[in-house]
Amino acid sequence: MRLDQLIQQTTTHEKTVVEVDRRVTLASRTTLGCCAASAVIYNQTRVDEATNLVGFIVDWFGFPTAGFIYTIIVLLVGVVLAFISKGFTSADQQTHQIIVGFIIAATVTAIPIVVATVVWVLFVLAIIAMLTATIGFAVLVLWALTQIN
Amino acid sequence: MMLPLATKAELENHSELADHAHGLVSYCRRSDAAVEVIGAAPLVTRPRVYNPGRGRNIWTVTRLEDDPLIRKGIMAIPSVQLDNLKRIDDAGVEFTELLIAHELPPDAIPANRASHGWRELDRYDLAVLEETARVPAPLPAVRETQKVGDRIEHVTRRTIDGVSQLAKTGETTGRAGWKLGLGTAAGVAAALVALDPIIIGTTTVSGHPNEGELAAHYVLARWDW
Q1: Angle between helices B139-163 and A22-45 (to 10 degrees)
Q2: What residue ranges do the domains of chain A occupy?
């Protein structure tokens, strides 16, 4: 075998495909699922007029179409990556870096939903607290009236 | 451990071969290609194994076309060494025969068949080597994937610990993480099983690859996986 034949039949070692860490695989698949769910939610909410704070947050703080397009792009990148890396299980060094970038980008798509959910939960908790306080105050007033009579 | 394939003393005893070898190295140096003379020894064209004994790593030496990694089409060379080989090829240097040596763990060939010193590899040995031959993963990629995995696990653990205050949950996650870490470390160790390949060029006075003819041996590329 000649040297030129060896060079032709050889790949660069750094481009060798390696097994992706199981935790990275799991995180990639989870974020891809979250990204798909986010795309469905944003597609639904972007056509609605936001009338409250939670709706405003889910609408990407007033830019629902831009947020939806961003989510769709990240989702498409994730699907292509999943195909190339056999379900995020094997990748060369460069693809691995793109997978890490995808995890970060896909996490960003879920931020408005998470923030809106937290705000909504806090709002519900505040309502419950106010109702409890109102009922308690009414009971106190009733008790006071009974004491007077 | 060095492979006792050829000696410089043997080369200096044969002036014609020595002159040719030194000329070749100088020519490659002018072409910005690194070639190192090992020395001279009878040319080996049939696959051989060198066992230094005492449980130390063994060496296999074969022609490139007989190498299990090349036969399987999975040979991979680090970019620095590959660039050097391209420069040698571009310089138009012709070698009589190209060999490849692999440092392998002592148990790479079944112990009962491995005698000390040099011996020829038979078909059974070659079949075993071909079956087990593989290119280890590039360490930077392995380390990177491990590092990202550690970060994801760290963030996840912090989140879980923050959301649920249950001590038991934290303990379980910790144990799982420890096991994962051990598994990854074992993977890195496994990647180091194949060691130190050397690509060797040889030249003979006749210019033909005759088994046993005295040949100058050169290191064209060597690296640690």
Answers
A1: 60
A2: 19-113
Query: How much is the ipTM here?
Result: 0.71
Question: A-B interface: how many C-beta pairs under 8 angstroms?
Answer: 98
**What is this structure's pTM?**
0.61
Q: Map out the domains of chain B as residue ranges.
A: 8-135+192-222, 139-189
Q: Express each pLDDT in B57-95 by its tens digit.
A: 888 888 988 888 888 888 888 888 999 999 999 988 889
Which of B31, B99, B144 to mutate to test binding with chain A, by most A CBs within 10 Å of its CB? Answer: B144
Contacts of A24 in chain B (CB under 8 A): 145, 148-149, 152
B1-26 pLDDT per residue, tens: 567 777 777 777 788 888 888 888 88
| Whether B82 and A96 lie within 8 Å, measured CB to CB | no
